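Obj.: predict assembly geometry.
Materials: sequence records (below).
Method: joint structure prediction, all chains together.
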Amino acid sequence: MAYGDNIVQRDLTFTVNRGDIFIIMGGSGCGKSTLLRHLVGLREPATGRVIFDGLDFWRASHHQRLALMRRIGILYQSGALWSSMTLAENIALPLEEYTQLSRQEINELVSFKLALVGLSGFEHYYPSQISGGMRKRAGLARAMALDPEVLVFDEPSAGLDPISSRLLDELILELRDSLGATVLVVTHELASLLSIGDNSIFLDPESRTMIAGGDPKRLLAESEDPRIIRFLTRGEQDHKRHAEAQL
Amino acid sequence: MTSQEIHANPALAELDCGSRDLLIRISGSWSTGDQLPVAETFIASLPDTGSQTLSFNTSGINRWDSRFVSWVIKVTDAAEARGIPVGYQGLPAGVQGLIKLAKAVPEHKASAPREEASGLLTRIGHGVHAFVDQTGELLAFLGEVFLAFTRMLTGKARFRGGDLLLYIQQTGVDALPIVGLISILVGLILAFIGAIQLAMFGAQIYIANLVGIAMVREMGAMMAAVIMAGRTGAAFSAQLGSMQVNEEIDAFKTLGIDPVEFLVLPRILALTLMLPLLCLYADLLGILGGAMVGTTLFDISLTLYVEQTISSISLADVMVGVVKSGVFGILIALAGCVKGMHCGRSASSVGDATTAAVVMSIVAVVVADAVMTLINNAIGV
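Observations (raw structure tokens):
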């Protein structure tokens, strides 16, 4: 992963298993969101491959890649709702583009998706008329519009209060269990990644590569790497060590 | 504390080398607005090396803020650099806390990316490189637009009809007042300038010819284009730039929807359709402006003015202006859209993109106008 001559991350090899909630974690600026852009087809990696269901994402034909992208639903950090459209139009657009459903069926599906994220009755609101948390949930409804096999979340907790953040975590778990989707989450929110993550990788900004992988809870309990311990304990270990040294 | 009291409590720092330690006695008011002792002068009075600990006695201080903390850090850093141990215990607890915070994270040594001073050749090289990059970006964008346009012609392009109508309204109907006002004024100005010269020969009636031909062939299209570059080209760039910042364009891409088809094509179509109509409207109002001057100041009857205008301009003249404005519409929409689509991801980059779009539009319009005028001249239109 690189921007020009500036290498962001190198030597990344990992597998996301079907049905897992997979966390990409690491401190600010380590390249989490850039990695996500490589994984979902927004930016070609400098070298290497992204294999999706046996197909090399970046060497596939344009049409194959588009077909793969339709199997992925993404919730962007800001929600990324199209501001000139109502929530209903935002969710209906992918359905209009890729299905042959009637207008009534599309409207019913839109209402259902909005109900799933707790936004029933907000069909005719514009993104500017609702709160940041509601925009995120509406973005999630749009991400689920085509019943994707993979749901991707870029910093889902960013800008949310703790309760909304926990509710979103519960929603992610519920959707994974109900829809059987694979979930990929880019986050550095400890409470979130420890409560929902099945598997993870940890990107280190200093060595510019992944330095660990596995169940985040297991990493917290067993890892001896000071960088991971520091991250997963919010630096409290450092604080304790410092306090002990002073005593 | 009043200013008199502050004046009565000047900030003082005295170095006492007589005792076992080096003691700095601080007294008076050390805050914003007070005259503080110059740190460098004080540092110069410190011994070059020494085993004595530098300590503080601040019992005489009655007021301090960040300036005092900054002064203490400057002095203690200098002392530590000379190998003099420093004891902070004598400082107020708040000052000790702030110093601890300020020194908790070591200073970032790596310098921020800076433009290195470079020679003329290097700068020319960078300039050429940037120009080639931008040209490549522009050509790639033109290619995408062309493909989207061919898909539209074969009925495969995807955009919402409602969006096209909205852009038509924004670029057409909503622009009528400003285009009308400017065109009338341009007609008035042309008539005045011409009339002063023509009156010397008693040929005021030819104001109608001058204004009619100038508006229809050139000024109607040009003024409408300049207004639309500043109004609509900038708006396109800002709209698309904001969408880039908010990841809305990424959302289109990841859904497999081509943003050029969905966002750019309807904008280009709307402006290309509307600018020729705005040009005709500008022509009419410019002629009206000329007529206002001719009829009110030079005693030309309205009927005569209209007849003279009609006899002086041909359909070919009108078509020259209309075709030019169609080309201007494409150029303005392309400039606005390319700058918006290639906008960075910060708020300031939206402003930069908008400025660049307006400049690019106006330059493109003027260059295209010059080229088309030469072509018209060559083919005798």
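Conclusions so far: Chain A has two domains: 2-71+150-246, 86-147.
To do: check interface contacts against the pulldown list.
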